[in-house]
What we know:
Blueprint: E1 4-12, E2 15-22, E3 30-40, H1 43-50, E4 62-70, E5 83-86, H2 97-100, E6 124-128, E7 132-134, H3 141-159, E8 168-172, H4 178-187, E9 191-196, H5 202-208, E10 212-215, H6 221-227, E11 231-236, H7 241-247, E12 251-259, H8 271-277, E13 280-283, H9 289-302, E14 308-312, H10 316-325, E15 331-335
Parallel strand pairs: 8-9, 8-11, 9-10, 11-12, 12-13, 14-15
Antiparallel strand pairs: 1-2, 3-4, 3-6, 3-15, 4-5, 5-7
Helix pairs in contact: 3-4, 3-9
Amino acid sequence: MTATHRAMAITAPGHLALVERPVPVPETGEVLIAVEACGVCGADRGDIERADPALRRVPGHEVVGRIMALGPQVPAIWSVGQRVGVGRFGGHCGNCRECRQGKFHLCRQQPVMGSTRDGGYAERMTARATGLVSIPDDLSLAEAAPILCAGLATFNGLKASGAGPGDTVAVLGIGGLGHMALQYARRMGFRVIAIGRGADIAADALDLGAHRYVDTEREDAAAVLTALGGAKALLSTIGDTGVVASVMPGLAPEGRLVLLGIGKDPLAVATAPLVSGERSVVGSITGSPYDSERTLDFSVLTGARPRIETLPLERANEAVHRMLSGAVTFRMVLTMGGSVAPQ
């Protein structure tokens, strides 16, 4: 085992630099992972822009690779060489009130990968065993990476929507999250309405599973949904709360708005439609490692796959910029390998 590894660290607000670091040693209850791929997620932007450069934090929370070493007291279900992943939440503590209720994804003491703990923009990374996800052999590691965040968030959001087979489900925002939501929604047996901005995404939306695409530049999305009888669920992947509010009137009685995207502005909600139609608004966070494994298994069983582009680790700045500009085809994934001198 080499003594050092390469990583892309935050050396200035909004900027990553290639550095060389000692290979970390797993502590009690941790494993050392040889990272093979790491997805580039929209949440990485905040981590990179707001981090204290003095910490030289390594971002990345859609991490997949193989276990290289086990720390003390790691359960026997994990072994060296095993394919594993780690998502946004890096492992529950087992002691807080939420953990004692079995709500591990709401644990108050778990690290946030890439934010409060070094993440996967690196060749090596340690992680709590409680945060590990087993990766099916039928998925490539590059494909599995985005499923640990974008896939998990939308899969759990759809499960929380209250919709059943045959119901109308609308997906607002056809990007990194939305393109997974369309695939899952179609395979769950919903009538799927994709809502996006512009005609350029229409063909992709239909190919991904939508029965109907609504271009908000040309159509009133709420009116379209109302004409279809209303949406049992509206899954919002965007942060523009004004747009979200404009589509909400398209919910059917007892319909549910499920928020995945986080906006800076408050969401304006008219109370009369909520009360009179018993509609509701809920938030949905990603999920536990078990939820991740369910999502991965569903993806394998149904053939749902993220559409990805890949770049090598040392081009992480370019990957992040492409993701933020919308130039990437749905999801960007960093892959490890190659040789570039650290700075």
